[in-house]
From TrEMBL:
The lineage of its organism: Bacteria, Pseudomonadati, Pseudomonadota, Alphaproteobacteria, Hyphomicrobiales. Residues 218-238 are annotated as: Disordered. This is Lipopolysaccharide export system protein LptC. The chain crosses the membrane at residues 42-63. It comes from the Bacteria. The keyword Transmembrane helix applies. Keywords: Membrane, Transmembrane, Transmembrane helix.
Length: 238
């Protein structure tokens, strides 16, 4: 009688798992469940971000907003800013002469795609006398809607055939009308040796009329008269 009552207790003890192994299994199961839930969340978030980015590109189409007369060796996107490597703009002026504007680097906001900010500006403008005016500056801003450019820092405007070399720190130029305004001090060198200094300067009539304003100082060299290129007549300002 005594042996029969003890047998079930011994059998039950054989089926019990060690306490340490049981805790380890529970901990592992919880960690695995947490990992699976986290992985699912990351997948859902990642897919959502991809859909949002693709939708943004399709709706706003930032790369199609690039100015039509603009080309670039490489294009990138950072937020709403399009970055351009070696951007080049070109067009035809009202007098039928071509112009070309290039930069080392350019940026363009997709919310205002007509404006391109440039670093390392280099431009060529065909003149109606079949000469070419070359322009350089450290930086600039080009408005493709108006074919208008703002030039900043170490601006140089040079035409070897016409015989002049202009230096200033800021200038604005309208490619269509051929007008230019320099509201910073200017220095004009002529091929014969004449030098003109002025506080401000403007160019109108496709470069045929040059006006100086403010304090004007000029040194006229007879060489300019011998070459047939008389220096521009200053128009004193206030």
């Amino acid at each position: 009688m005594t042996d029969l009552t003890r047998a079930p207790a011994k059998a039950a003890s054989r089926l019990e798992l060690p306490v340490g192994a049981s805790r380890h299994a529970v901990h592992h199961a919880r960690w695995h469940s947490l990992f699976v839930r986290s992985l699912r969340s990351f997948i859902i978030i990642g897919c959502t971000l991809i859909v949002v980015i693709v939708g943004f590109i399709i709706i706003f189409n930032p790369f199609r907003q690039i100015t039509k007369n603009l080309s670039s060796s490489a294009v990138g996107l950072q937020g709403t800013t399009v970055t351009l490597s070696s951007p080049k703009m070109h067009g035809i002026r009202q007098d039928g002469q071509p112009f070309e504007l290039t930069g080392g680097v350019g940026t363009q906001d997709i919310l205002n795609p007509g404006v391109v900010k440039l670093a390392g500006v280099n431009a060529k403008i065909g003149m109606d006398d079949r000469t070419t005016t070359r322009i350089t500056s450290i930086s600039g801003v080009y408005d493709s809607n108006r074919d208008y450019v703002w030039l900043n820092d170490n601006v140089r405007i040079k035409n070897d055939d016409a015989g002049y070399d202009l230096f200033t720190q800021h200038a604005e130029m309208d490619f269509n009308s051929g007008t230019m305004v320099a509201d910073a001090p200017v220095k004009l060198l002529l091929s014969g040796g004449s030098v003109v200094h002025a506080d401000r300067m403007s160019v109108t009539d496709n470069g045929h009329k040059i006006s100086f304003q403010g304090h004007i100082n000029s040194v006229i060299d007879p060489g300019d008269a011998n070459t047939g290129r008389a220096p521009p007549e200053p128009e004193p300002g206030p």
